[in-house]
Amino acid sequence: MTPKQIYGILAEFKDTKSVLKAAESVKIEGYINFDCHTPFPVHGLDDAMGLKRSIIGYIVGFGCVAGASAGLLLQWWVSTIAYPVVISGKPFFSWQAYMIITFILMILGGAFASLIGMFHLNKMPTYHHPLFNSKNFQKATDDAFFVSIEFNDPKFDLNDTKTFLLSIGGENIEVIEE
Amino acid sequence: MADTATDKQQNYIVEAPLVEGNHNFSTITEKISSIVESKPPSGWLIAFLFSFSLFLMLNGAIAYLLWEGTGIWGLNNPVGWGFAIVNFVFWVGIGHAGTLISAVLFLFRQKWRTAINRFAEAMTIFAVICALLFPGIHVGRVWVAYFMFPIPNQMGVWPNFRSPLLWDIFAVGTYFLVSLLFWYVGLIPDLATLRDRTTSKVKRFVYGILSLGWRSSNRHWQNYELAYLMLAGLSTPLVLSVHSIVSTDFAVSLLPGWHTTIFPPYFVAGAIFSGFAMVMTLAIPVRKIYGLESIITIGHLDKMAKIMLVTGSMVGYAYAMEFFIAWYSGNTFESFAFVNRAVGPYAWAYWIMISCNVIVPQLFWFKTLRTSIPVLFIASIFANIGMWFERFVIVISSLSRDYLPSSWDYYTPSIWDILMLIGSFGLFFTLFLLFLRFIPMIAMSEVKGVLPEADPHHGDVH
After folding, report:
1. Nearest Cα residue in chain B from A19
2. Among A123, B50, B170, B343, which lies 20 to 30 A Cα-Cα from B292?
3. What is the count of structural domains for chain B?
4. Is residue B459 part of a domain?
5. Does residue B161 lie in a domain region?
6. How far apart are CA B426 and CA B26, in angstroms?
């Protein structure tokens, strides 16, 4: 086993309180490429890990603007250029009547942006991940809490990191291979 | 959830627990996943075969419609819009409770929603599928259904964006897509749970593909939660707009009984009322058959009954206000349309509507009735019937007697109308039963999140 094949080290914690403390300790210790794995989002874990607020809001904002503009543009083009028809003497570009579809497409644009944005930021979809090599890690979607520290972290050292995880209360410490 | 409500809650309110019994994280996983993993109860197959045969009947009825044309329906000269539009509005309305539970209650941090949101959302999607069926077939010529979409065609003709019918296509189509996205995003962590539990290679592969590589990472949860919040924030105005837009199909016309500004809010209230009734109709047998009483508690049903009371009373208020405005407007045709509803040839339908939608929900003023399963179940069925008749009354009674008495006629549905209505229930229940069989019907990760031990400060002394 050459060190290059190592993905990182995984440690299990028994409840939300201990994983929250562990995340804080890992951050204070100076690790950057680490992650927590919990079956449900744990309140306060983002702060404990030192994560900044997700930028999804801006992506959704962009999606909404794009959807609304596309909707208005479509209706303007169809009713003034492609197929202008006089209906009850109203102007071709009756923007008041077009607001509904503009609004609906704004929502549609925003919804797709939030999905695609989330996929992009989370590097999803994927089928395999090195962590799935661990049998114990299957509990991460059931009732167990994990902290993983990645090999590519500048502070990573196989022995030191292991000892550190043990010292903050980690159990079932496992070296994960690629 | 990114909120301090749970922290504060412990200090001054002691609420009834959201999950009853001695559940912990793993018993929740076990309870809900095992439904999908083990053989279904024997009643499931019987119910499925029954619904599926109704669905096949619907297919037969549609085939005959396409062969013969819309003449097989009971439509006549003044009543050119019959069951197809009634069923469409009915099914779209049913869908609304799902989005209300999943999005609006999420924004209001109503944690009790977690037990019922998954299958309420599924109900939304299936109801919208049933709804979309009817505009698709209502002209009897499905091969020209593309006329409804703004796509280049050989005639060089484009749709009229000033028409509420086109707004409808966009609104309901978007509603379907956004509900589907919202539902699927909510499903990802639970599909990962199933992937991690299964021992079968094939299932592991399928769930592995469907769960998109989810590994419960907090860096993922962070984006996921905000994306979910955004979807909830987008769905909320959407759900309020969809039935408003559906109501403009009527309100923008000049027909007495339709041409009223009260329609959008009145339709939305009715939609929420009927949707909650349908959630209750589905939840009561499901929690009993699958033994989920500790997760979908009587407290949940109590809360849903309260929402039905509120929305049912709003609908009742709207019925009264329609009458008042019809009289107050001094418009002869408008006044006639409403008097005709109450005492005219369709008075029977009108009074079914009033009894089911306004009188029946008043039972829910009483806590004993709100917590009685038989009362809730029967009342929810009545509400479903009442809301179908509401659309029937609006569509048929207004159309059958418009301005010119010489053109009046009485509409009677044909057997095909009725078969298609029953068949649409077959489609709905077929999809719903497949959902119960193959997809976790309760959002496991969310229910775990509302357990007391999910709070990192659980047990701390303040």
Report:
1. B456
2. B50
3. 1
4. no
5. yes
6. 36
- pTM for the full model? 0.91
Residue B417 domain flag: yes
So what's the ipTM on this one? 0.92
A171, pLDDT greater than 90: no
B461: in domain? no
What is the C-alpha to C-alpha distance for residues B121 and B106, in angstroms, rounded to an integer?
13
pLDDT (tens digit, 9 = 90+) per residue, B355-396?
999 999 999 999 999 999 999 999 999 999 999 999 999 999
Alpha-carbon span B3 to B233, nearest angstrom: 16
- Yes or no, beta carbons of B3 and A43 under 8 Å apart: yes
Q: For residue B37, give the CATH number of its domain.
A: 1.20.1630.10
Number of CB atoms found within 10 A of residue B168's CB = 21
Residues A115, B213: C-beta atoms closer than 8 Å: no
Distance of alpha carbon B171 from alpha carbon B128, whole angstroms: 11
H helices present in B82-146, as ranges? 83-99, 105-107, 117-137
- How many domains is chain A built from? 1
Residue range of the domain that includes B231: 5-454
Q: Rounded to an integer, what distance in angstroms lies between the CA atom of residue B453 and that of residue A19?
A: 13
Joined together, the tokens standing for residue B150 give 């703004």
**Structural domain contains residue A159:** no
Of the residues B157, B226, B447, B448, the best mutation for testing chain A's interface (the one with the most A CB atoms within 10 Å of its CB) is: B226
